[in-house]
Amino acid sequence: MIIDAHAHIFPDKIAARAADGISSFYGMRVRYDGTLGELFREGEKAGVTRYIVQSVATVPEQVNAINNFISECVKKYPDKLIGFGAMHPDFPDIKGETERLISLGLRGIKLHSDFQRFNIDDERAFPIYEAAEGRLPILFHVGDNRYDFSSPKRLMNVMKKFPKLTVIGAHLAGWSEWDEGARIFAGSGAYADCSSSLYAMSPEHAAELIRKIGTDRVMWGTDYPMWDASEELKMFERLPLTSEERENILYKNALRLVGEL
Ligand SMILES: [Zn+2]
Known about the structure:
This protein is an alpha/beta fold. The chain has helices at 12-26, 36-46, 63-76, 94-103, 113-116, 126-132, 152-161, 170-173, 178-185, 203-213, 229-237, 243-257, and strands at residues 3-8, 50-54, 81-83, 85-86, 109-111, 138-140, 167-169, 191-193, 218-219. The strands form 2 sheets. A 6-stranded parallel beta sheet has the order 4-5-6-7-8-9. The chain has a 3-stranded parallel beta sheet with strand order 1-2-3. Helix 2 (36-46) packs parallel to helix 11 (229-237), helix 4 packs parallel to helix 6 (126-132) and helix 9 packs parallel to helix 10. The protein is globular. The relative contact order is 0.15.
């Protein structure tokens, strides 16, 4: 079993535009178009069996539609997809929408505060953390050395204030500030994924950061549509990890996160 713990999907009609937006935000080539079809096609080639899928609401007006879309996808492919919902700090009824997304079968929330333009530890976002605490994990985009919205330090402030919140720090808890992210996450008990990270460091360095965060905490992911699943797996296989650690990262930690292990 292999679980891709970090995949973005978009409705077919807007997928190409959304993928272009990600590409220009990061100044990087996005490999795929962001449709569910291509996620499955490329994932299956690599041997991926399940996917945690989500999408970011860049404005509050998108929250409802994204949650409906992700939930429809999950209903169509319940064996393959674990869906996370969207939320936005300026959404008028955070508590109500959190209840609704739970009733839709969604099992977590995705936030990307660089796209959504709020500091992760801003009080405006506290109602999201209050609503999710003890109920739903939040997958946070973490780190971007061009901004300060999503810094690992700010996320640590949230973890201190909401100790019962299940946190997933994307990109080894600090994209483009990986050492800082792993240092802050070490021993915190929070989850992380290693998507959009392995390309930027040596296999030895990646293994060191993963061990710092915890091999029982880090999950493998592609950040689809950004990267190719087969290439990401090849990079992952180069890391000097034990087979037990590999199994944890490739699927067991994700199963534990969603309460299936
Ligand atoms: Zn993401």
